[in-house]
Every structure is written in C-alpha cells, then in structure tokens.
Amino acid sequence: SNAPIKTDVLTELGTNDFSYLIPITGYYCVAAINPPFEGEHNNFEMIVNFHNAYGSLPASQIPLLSLYGLLGVVYAVCLFIYLFPVFKHRSELLLLQKYLAGFFVFLTIEDILTWSLYEIQNNNKKYPLPGGIQFYIVFVSILNAFKISFSLFLLLVISLGYGIVYTKLPRKVMNVCKIICGLHFLFSAAAAWFSYHASQSQPIGSTTSTGRASDGFDTDSIIGILISIPMMILFM
Questions:
Q1: Residue 2 domain-assigned?
Q2: Which of 5, 39, 76, 96 could form a disulfide with 163 if both were Cys (CB 3.0 to 4.6 A apart)?
Q3: How far apart are CA 131 and CA 35, in angstroms?
Q4: Which residues of the chain have pLDDT under 70?
C-alpha cells in the first residue's frame, strides 16, 4: 500500500503522545533503532499498542453497547407502564407481586449500569485497568449475579406454589432454595467478573509476545471452565 511513513525521536519515558492512524486494512510494521550513547549501545524496551478505532472492546462486544442501551430504554418505558397499575392497586397486591415489581426496578437499573460499564471500558485507553474501573467491574458483576440468582430463586419458589397455592413454604424447602441460589450467586459473580474483565482487549505487555498471549488464552479458558462446571451442576 501507499501508506505514509511516520518517524519520530523519543527522548522521554512514557507514551510521548505518538500515534499513527491506520485508515486502510493491511500489514503495518514498526521499526525502532537505538543510537549509540557515549560510545555504547543503549538498550531499551518499547511497547507498541495497536488500538482499535472503535474503542477498547473486542469487535464481538461492540454490538452490546447498542443492545444494552436499547434494552435500558425499553425496560424504563415498560417499568413506568407497569408501575402505574401497581401503584393504583397497591393495597390489593400479593407479597409475591410486590417482589416482582421491586425486581423489575432492579432489572432496569442493572441494565443501565451494565451499559455504562461497556461504555467506560470501550473508552478506556489505560492499561492495566484503573482501580475505579476494576471496582466498577466487581460491582456490576455482583449485580448481574444477583439478577440471575434471584431470577432462579423466584422460579423455584413460584414453581413450588409460593404466593399462589401456599402463603408460605416449609422452612426446610425454603432453606434448600436459598442455599442453591446462594451458591449459584457466588459462581455467577465469578463468571460475570471473568467475562467483563476479559472483555478489555488491551495487552498486558508487548503485543509481539505470542507466547504470553497463548498462555493467557489457555489460562483464561481453564478458569472459565472451572467456573462453569459448578453452575452446570446447580442447574441439573
């Protein structure tokens, strides 16, 4: 291709705000030389980061930005429509219906926060991830795990007749449901954290280290499998 050649002299540590725009898909290379320093060769290390134009998320997760944003709007509209009759007939509601209304509010908030997490990760250009983003990942992972586990809990108790056939379930049955959903919550939180944390596509070190990239992929795959096995057992 006829791509321009850009050169620069780096005299300071850091990013030096040096970037190169790649408008056309193709093969590009980076060359660096170290001039002699006081009669001896000057050794140095340099990290080259090929940053995607659309952001820091992998291409497969870019549609999630629009998806969660759209779901947030749909959830919010449906929530207001649903809460109007709930508020109007609040004195006639069963306890289970109140739980469902509260859970609907939680789902809407959780979806908006999930969208904001993807937006923050996509705009992040710092690596390793800043502490604030890592904390937010943990926070959203907990919310996501609670959503899944509480959905399972509602499914279990409703299928057993709670709030419809029986006003209360036997304590032993309810405790079993709580234990199952509690374990499910722990593994779901770990799986969600792993998913959000692995979605950051920026490298740990040099992008030319193929051995490191391969080892990281294998390790991540093993962790994902170890997290998924207990969840599959709980669903069986």
A1: no
A2: 96
A3: 37
A4: 1, 14-15, 36-42, 196-236
Pick left, alpha or beta for residue 65 (phi over 0 → left; psi -120 to 50 → alpha; otherwise beta). Answer: alpha
The CA distances from residue 61 to 56, 64, 66, 150, 171, in Å, are 10, 5, 10, 26, 43
Buried b vs exposed e over 100-111: b needs ≥16 C-beta within 10 Å?
A: bbebeeebbebb
Token output for 13? 């540590």
Number of domains in the chain: 1
CA–CA separation, 234 vs 189, rounded Å? 14
Chain segment 17-42, per-residue pLDDT in tens = 777 877 777 777 888 877 766 666 66
The answer to whether position 49 is within a domain reads no
Domain carrying residue 167: 61-200+219-235
Q: Are 109 and 177 in contact (CB under 8 A)?
A: no
Name every residue whose Cβ is closer than 8 Å to that of residue 36 and which is 6 or more positions away in sequence.
42
CA distance 191 to 169: 31
Contacts of 185 (CB under 8 A, 6+ apart): 145, 146, 148, 149
Report the alpha-carbon distance of residue 236 to residue 233 in Å, rounded.
5
Cβ atoms within 10 Å of 147's Cβ, excluding its own:
19
Find the radius of gyration of the CA atoms of the chain: 25
User: Whole-angstrom Cα distance, residue 144 to residue 229?
Assistant: 19
